[in-house]
Specification:
The protein has 4 helices and 9 strands. It has a 9-stranded mixed sheet. It is α/β, with parallel strands linked by helices. The chain has one domain: TIM Barrel, CATH 3.20.20.70. Helix 1 packs across helix 2. About 35% of the residues are buried.
Length: about 220
Amino acid sequence: MYRVKEAFYTLQGEGAQAGRAAVFCRFSKCNLWNGREADRASAVCSFCDTDFVGTDGQNGGQFATAAGLADHIAALWPGQGSEGSRPYVVCTGGEPLLQLDETLIQAFHQRGFEVGVETNGTLMAPAGIDWLCVSPKADAAVVINQCDELKVVYPQALAHPEAFDHIRATHRFLSPMASPATPDGGSDPVKASNTRKAVDYCLAHPRWRLTVQMHKLVGID
C-alpha cells in the first residue's frame, strides 16, 4: 500500500533541475517529524514547512499497487505539447524512501518516466533512481554517501555544510532556511537574514552554490 498526500504537475522550484516540468508525488509520513505541530519543537527536523500528513491533498490517496500509483501519476503528465521531453516524476515527502521501492520505480520507468527523489538521506535508496537529491536534517545520520545533488538547508546548528564533505555529489547547494510560520509569498525576515548568510558562505566556499525556492517567488505550487 502506497500512501500519497498529494500529487500535482508543476515546475521544479530549486536545485539543479529548477524550472523543469515535473509531476510531484508527495508521500505521507516522515521519520524525522510526525507532522503534528504539538511535537514540532522536539522533532529532529523542526523547521519543515510541508504538510505531509494523511492522504487528503490534491490527487492524494491510497494505492494498493505500484501499477495503480504509476498510472495515477502518468495521468497528470500532459499529452499534447510534451513531445521531445521525457516525463519526470519527483518523489518527495515527508520522507519518500519510507515507501518508494524498486517495484514502483520500475512501474514509473515502464510508463516512460525519469524518477527523481528528494530524501533526507537517513534510509538507503532502492536501485533505479535516475536523480537523487539528499537534504540532510540536523544530526540525523546520513547513510547515503553518493548522490546527484546535495542540498543543505542553511543554517542548521547541527548540520554544518562541512559535515557532509565525505558525500560524493555532482552538485552542492545551500537553501536558505525559511520560517515555517510564514505563508508562501509572505514577508519572511528570517529567510532574508538566512539568505544573506548562505550567500556569504557560498562566496567563502565556492564549491557550494545558492539555490532559492523559485516556486514560492513566482507563486506556483
